[in-house]
Every structure is written in structure tokens, then in C-alpha cells.
């Protein structure tokens, strides 16, 4: 199996998450995408963090039983607080599955701040999805500075090897630009009106 991992707080999930998942499914010929909802993002404030149960419920409702996308609370189950530990446990549990960690440009630029980010690169293939207009940002991304990492810019779809120490950069013309904050504010207003 070839599985993409889209990790994050999903506070709240939105069409942009589906959009980049569909891009990764298509361009990397993945069998499925697992949305790994994290209890807390160590790099973000949890002041406006919706409960994990609500975030998972919202994401599952949004996906509406999508045949190739699944919402999971494995990070809570694993009792890990960061992606490195979660992916290590995931690889141990599913030794015959090839995983790829999917992010957007925001995470590509702060990736060097993640806990044991170099160790994470040794555990899983990375896929950063960016707009074509962000080529300059891709070139200057801290993630590109690590010489031990194989860097590949994708021009088309294909069943590429999902090997650790490999980063794929997928540049697309159109990527939805949707804010989780706006979605969350709308959902909270809607919840208050239904009470």
C-alpha cells in the first residue's frame, strides 16, 4: 500500500485539505490519504483550539465517507506529541506500507522547527505541495538546504518511490486558499445559532 499522511490540527478541516489530498492521490498514485489529527500542534497556540472530538467529527462529516480519505486519531492513540514519534510508531505497526507525509508551503518553511525534523526525514518521504508562483519560496525553503535529502521537483503524475530521505516538491497552478480560522469562526457562529 502507498499511503499519504496529512497531519495537522484540522482546526477546522476544510475544502483545501480535501483539495491537496486529491492532488497527492492523483500525482503520486497513492492508494489512500490518512488525515492524522493531532491533539495539539506544538508550534501553534491552543487558545482557539476546538476539542479533538469535535475536530475529528467535523473532518469526518466533511469527507462524507470518501473512498480514499480517512480521518484518524492515531496520534492520540499512540500517545505521541510530535510527528517524528508518531511516524516511527506508524512504520513499526505497518512495516509493509510505504508512507508519504504531505504538507503545504507553510510547513515547508517552518519544518526545521519541528521536533527531530531530521529524524523524521529518515523515517518518511515528504511531499510539499505549492503553487507554481511559489517557486522562489521553494528554492529558499530551509527544507531544501539539507544536502543529505534527495530533492525532486515533480512535473507530472507517476508512481514514484516513496522512500525516506526524499522530498518531492509538487508545483500546481491552482491550489485553494482557504483559512481554517475563517471556517472555525463560521462553524462557531453556526453552533451558537443552533443552541
In short:
This protein is α/β, with parallel strands linked by helices and 195 residues long. The protein contains eight helices and seven strands; from the N terminus they run βαβαβααβααβαββα. The protein has helices at 15-28, 52-63, 74-78, 83-93, 105-110, 117-121, 135-139, 180-194; strands at residues 2-8, 32-37, 69-72, 98-104, 125-131, 150-154, 166-172.
What does this structure look like?
The chain is 37% helix and 22% strand. It is an alpha/beta fold and 195 residues long. The protein has one domain (2-194): HUPs (Rossmann fold, 3-Layer(aba) Sandwich). It has a seven-stranded parallel sheet. Strand 1, helix 1 (15-28) and strand 2 (32-37) form a beta-alpha-beta unit. The model is unreliable at 178-195 (pLDDT under 50).
Helicity level, as a percent range?
Answer: 25-40%
User: Which CATH-level-2 architecture?
Assistant: 3-Layer(aba) Sandwich
Structurally, the number of domains stands at 1
Proportion of strand residues: 15-25%
Largest sheet: 7 strands, parallel
Question: Strands of the biggest beta sheet: in what spatial order?
Answer: 3-2-1-4-5-7-6
The level-1 CATH class: Alpha Beta
What's the total helix number? Answer: 8
Write down the oligomeric state: single chain
Structural class: alpha/beta
Mean pLDDT: 84
CATH homologous superfamily label: HUPs
N/C terminus separation: 44 Å
The ordered H/E elements are: EHEHEHHEHHEHEEH
Give unreliable regions as ranges.
178-195
Shape: globular
- Kindly provide the radius of gyration, computed on alpha-carbon positions and rounded to a whole number of angstroms: 16 Å
